[in-house]
Specification:
The complex is a heterotrimer of chains A (about 280), B (about 200) and C (about 260).
Chain A: E1 4-12, E2 21-28, E3 33-37, H1 44-52, H2 54-57, E4 62-69, E5 72-73, H3 79-82, E6 86-89, H4 104-115, H5 119-132, H6 148-160, E7 166-170, H7 178-193, E8 197-201, H8 205-211, E9 214-219, E10 222-227, H9 229-232, H10 247-254, H11 269-283
Parallel strand pairs in A: 3-8, 3-9, 6-7, 7-8
Antiparallel strand pairs in A: 1-2, 1-4, 4-5, 9-10
Chain B: H1 13-35, H2 45-54, H3 56-73, H4 82-97, H5 104-130, H6 137-148, H7 153-181, H8 185-191, E1 199-200
Chain C: H1 14-17, H2 20-36, H3 40-56, H4 60-84, E1 91-95, E2 98-101, H5 102-128, H6 131-140, H7 145-174, H8 183-213, H9 233-255
Antiparallel strand pairs in C: 1-2
Helix pairs in contact in C: 2-5, 2-9, 3-5, 4-5, 6-7, 7-8
The chains are: A alpha/beta (about 280), B mainly alpha (about 200), C mainly alpha (about 260).
Chain lengths: ~280, ~200, ~260
Amino acid sequence: MKKVVVENLKYRYPLSENLALKGISFEVEKGEFIGIIGRNLAGKSTLCQALVGLVPHFYKGAYSGSVKISGMNVLENNISGLSKKIGIVFQNPFTQITAAKLTVYEEIAFGLENMGIEKKEMIRRIEYVLYLLDLEKYKDRNPFELSGGQMQRLAIASIIAMKPEIIVLDEPTSQLDPQGSEEVFKAIQSLSREGITIMMVEQKIEKIAQYTDRVMLMSDGEVVDFDVPQKIFLKDNLLNYGVQAPVFTRVCRSLNIKNKNTGLYPVTLDEAYELMVRHEQNRS
Amino acid sequence: MNKRRLWSFSFTTATLVLIPAAIGINYIGKLFAGVLKLPLWLDSIGTALASMLSGPVVGAISGAINNIIYGLTMDPISFVYALTSIAIGITVGIMAYNGRINTLWKSIIAGVVVAIVAAIVSTPLNVIFWGGQTGNVWGDALYAYLIAHAVPVWIASFLDEIVVDFPDKIATMIIAFLIFKGLPRKLILLYQSGETIEKLD
Amino acid sequence: MAKTLSLYVERNTFIHRVDSINKILYVLVSVAIPLILPYKFVAIFLILISISFLLLAKVMRRVIPLIEFSVIILLSIVIIQGLFHAGNKTVAFHIARITFYKEGLSYAFTLSTRVINILLAFAILVLTTKPSELIEALVKKGLSPRFGYVLSSALQIIPQMMSAVGSIMDAQRSRGLETEGNLAVRIRAFFPLIGPVVMGSLIETRERAMALEVRAFNSREKKTFLNERQNLRSDNVIRLILFSILSLSIVLRVLL
């Protein structure tokens, strides 16, 4: 089954005159890692929130079209029901802490208690995500005492413990220092290896290029393009959308160094390095 | 603003999370009053804001839980004065709903009303627990003077309380009004447990 | 400010292990009995019992800061009532040329024992119970979990907000805000301080509400609990004792 099916989604926030989403349609397969890029106010966050039901159930407003998550129609279900299938991690690590629990361990249990998960299963899941997100040594710490990167990993752990099939990450590292960001990307990689379908909004374009299977370029409430990174970063007019191709792609482009098989420019550092070395060897 | 019901007991997640924040604002108001050495309590600003944002029920609950937390973490007698906080929440909520707090002058009048209501609710509590005193130096000095001159206890106690409440509640309502005016409409909308249903495009 | 609002004192005594609900019942019974049987010795007797529980719980010393403010007010009440109480007729004693009367002192004494009785009963609850356990006990007995959340989160959110305020004050001061001087200056300083605090709190509140929603906060499933407290046999015994004492006092009141 396709994990995410969006058909002609349109949405307008209350008190707004313009549509935030102007007719979006796309599909995502199981296990895909999708990157979402575009300038600020392109509708990326709104789209993320529409996938989990915050749009429209939390914000109200005007809505049409359909979003189906693992077959569940977002409009016809509530956010709690959808949370069994899809989870979301936001930018601010601090406001994702419930503040109702005194330890990391109990904090992860919060969502599980709400879902009515039986105690033995709760413990199994908590121990698993503590291991997966490398938080075992912090399990008795107060969540507010963690660093930004640790807090964000806790947010991810708390969502993953609920075993959603899909996880949405809305600029998860924008408020973190470089070390925190690296910790979080490492964590997201382990999620990807577990087979979870991932949709991530990110400004760090090199990371998008490195991790994702397909990239969605958004602008002004619409999806401009949705394709593999190599094709997206081939476009000439990326700057118009407030986005730049990764550094090494631009370098290879200016040196006209392509991948001979695909005819496309490399998008990862490793591939670019390889091609440039071969290019040098061919010249000499 | 009149779309939602006045006595709505349906709490959205946003209005529930508003409550601890309102209590935090109460604490902070008190802190600033102390730091700036202002001769006021200023410990109900959060309750007033919660009432203005989400109505009398949420305001009353914010006030009640405020006192419950004071009671559990500082002074147990505060529990009983939850009644006063509830009265303040209800009063501000009703007035805000009826548009009686939408100019500076109206907020001053609202402050007077709140002060009187608070004093009326607190006075019986003061009489039962403290023989009519309030623990405020100036108010109690007035009280002592009055009963020494054979003024009935209830009146003396009420005056003791109102002398403290007038300046404090008027200032509180002015501050709450000014803050509320400065909030963006989209933020305010979120806290109205408004039955604003999603319309289809 | 501590990172969570709590007066809990960590100890390993019998009193600490008593079920939180029973401690609440104890407070209610302690407050009710002097009302049912309004004799002076009843309140004093209850005070002595509470003191012995506090001693058993090894938290007696922590009671002082809890009650000192009230005790000061009580002293002022003793003085004011002793001097000026409406029904003052019988002289108790003189200090210099100031006369204290029996009626006023007796009245003040009754008030004081009532207040101290309530304070000490609460002290047992507050000093020997972890707030998180108390709230969870209430939720297990039927309190709405959403309200349990409001109470639990308040205990950490409030200190968080208080410590964030320090940075706002510094930031505004460095931008030239005057916080000292005459009253007008200080009043004017209030708004640039409270404005950002309120805005920030409301935005955080919205974000936290969204995070709660996606953690199934509004799920209608029957809630489960990670922490399960063993029901001790002493819990039921204590509850029985409390109810018996309460019934006994009602009976006595009717008879006497």
